[in-house]
Amino acid sequence: MSDSVSKALFNGDHGLRVLGIDWLGSLTYSRADAFCHGVIQGLKGLNTPITLLFKQDIAGLIGIHFIEELGCQKPVICLDGLDQVDFDFVDIGEVINQTGLVPVVAKSILFNSGSKLS
Amino acid sequence: MSESRRFTSADRALVESDIIEVLTLGLDIGSATSHVSISRLTMVRGHNRYTVSSTEVVYQSPVMKTPFGGEGRAFIVRTELESMIDDSLLKANVNRDDIESGVVILTGNALRRHNARQIADLLASFSGKFISISAGDRLESTMAAYGSGTVQESVGGDCLNVDIGGGTTKITRCVNGKVTELTAIEVGGRILQFTDWGQVGHAEPNFRLYTANNQLPEYGSGLSEDELEQIIDRMAQTVLGAIQGRELGDAQRLDRITEFPKSGTVVLSGGVSQWIMNIEPSVECDDLGQRLAFRTRDLLQEAGYTIKIANDPIRATVLGASQQRMQVSGNTVYISDERLLPIRNAPVSLVQYLQRISINRQLPSW
């Protein structure tokens, strides 16, 4: 898993990258633990915060797991309830104080060929 | 972000209208050519986001040579790109301020130029509405696969997109509408250019992989027909090798892929493939493009592959970007340090965390 994370996401020529996570199945301690270990391994040696966007409402728990359970030294940003698609780029705004909400703007790149080949 | 105050709940959308129209601009800066397209998007509001329901290309600029200048062609000439954009806006009858979103993409050898970053910020005058991307090999390959129609074509089958650009060749396998594997190699139509008199002009460093003595030929020297033929053949063989999953040494830019089965279809795209379609090129061929295109096609056919050519090979690229999808996160968030925010234009890569503890390696990625 750590291999996949590092290989899939960090191609060397990019800075910060956001992982969109579609968490299928239940959230058990062991799965969360394995997941977090994998992400940390995958990001090893890269000077970048761990930035995860979850589709499911589990970001708080996972975020805490990184810090409390694994003693992760990197900054962690975990947001949830977001459905991203490939080719999305995101702006993550500052936390809105009264509500604790975080605005996220997703931008997708569009392609000019949706048609079948002749 | 003053607009954020308008949010009252997690599901509330920022804009109230149900259908909106957006003008978007795409600027593609490749190793060999650059072009601009302007499109009108119609977007429809869904639950808490807008999705594109239709796109209409308002204007496509002619394809021009990417303006490299300076010693060793080390810079991209910014003013020429700017006038290209202005010209496009004028011809499309669109005001600069009316452009709502856009993309600037730098690909291939254009990325290796010293001022690439500066160019990527070229459209800062569009007040931050633009995504500017220095596309790495992975992103480029995936883009080419979508843009060339290969992803679509692969629904119910197995296709391989071979996108031969000016500086690199991107190879992407698509099975049943999904990108499954990709790689990139050091083959391109413009890694050697000729002077007006047919002598050796500018050569990119990776050209030495294909010369007999592994040295770059001297500027102004001549190449015999035989030598040229051999160089083209080595390049085409490299493409074939990549498709067959062979180890290619220095020519390999990303890990190799598994061998593509003969039963599948190879879709050729990229500026070089334009030659095969006998499209009257808008730029004169003063490089290896034409020869490379035909040799590669022939070699792949001899190897037993079925070949298709993308509909509009050189423009198998981006239209623009939609940017009307504001979402809020807030059910359960965790941010260890709020000073990290805001973050701008961070690319998202999708990962599925499956029932079993593993990541699906088949997901498109770059």
Summarize the structure in words.
The complex is a heterodimer of chains A (118) and B (366). Chain A has 118 residues and is an alpha/beta fold. Chain A has helices spanning 2-9, 29-42, 59-69; strands at residues 18-23, 50-54, 76-79, 88-92, 102-111. In chain A, the strands form 2 sheets. Chain A has a 3-stranded parallel sheet with strand order 1-2-3, with helices on one face. In chain A, strands 4-5 form a two-stranded antiparallel sheet. In chain A, α1 packs across α2 (29-42) and α2 packs across α3 (59-69). The N and C termini of chain A lie far apart (40 Å). In chain B, β5 and β6 form a beta hairpin. Chain B is built from 6 helices and 18 strands. Residues 1-15 and 357-361 of chain B have low confidence and may be disordered. Chain B is α/β, with parallel strands linked by helices and 366 residues long. Chain B is globular, with a radius of gyration of 22 Å. In chain B, α5 (225-243) packs across α6 (289-302). Chain B has helices at residues 78-92, 116-120, 137-147, 150-153, 225-243, 289-302; strands at residues 19-29, 33-45, 50-60, 64-65, 68-69, 75-76, 99-106, 130-134, 158-164, 169-175, 178-185, 192-194, 200-203, 265-269, 306-309, 318-329, 334-335, 343-353. In chain B, strands 1, 2, 3, 4, 7 and 8 form a 6-stranded mixed sheet that branches. Chain B has a 5-stranded mixed sheet with strand order 11-10-9-14-15. The longest helix of chain B has 19 residues, at 225-243. Chains A and B meet through α1, β1, α2, α3 and β3 of A and β2, β3, β8, α3 and β16 of B. β4 (88-92) of chain A pairs antiparallel with β18 of chain B.
Can you lay out the helices and strands and say which pair or pack?
The complex is a heterodimer of chains A (118) and B (366).
Chain A: H1 2-9, E1 18-23, H2 29-42, E2 50-54, H3 59-69, E3 76-79, E4 88-92, E5 102-111
Parallel strand pairs in A: 1-2, 2-3
Antiparallel strand pairs in A: 4-5
Chain B: E1 19-29, E2 33-45, E3 50-60, E4 64-65, E5 68-69, E6 75-76, H1 78-92, E7 99-106, H2 116-120, E8 130-134, H3 137-147, H4 150-153, E9 158-164, E10 169-175, E11 178-185, E12 192-194, E13 200-203, H5 225-243, E14 265-269, H6 289-302, E15 306-309, E16 318-329, E17 334-335, E18 343-353
Parallel strand pairs in B: 1-7, 7-8, 9-14, 14-15
Antiparallel strand pairs in B: 1-2, 2-3, 2-4, 5-6, 9-10, 10-11, 12-13
Helix pairs in contact in B: 5-6
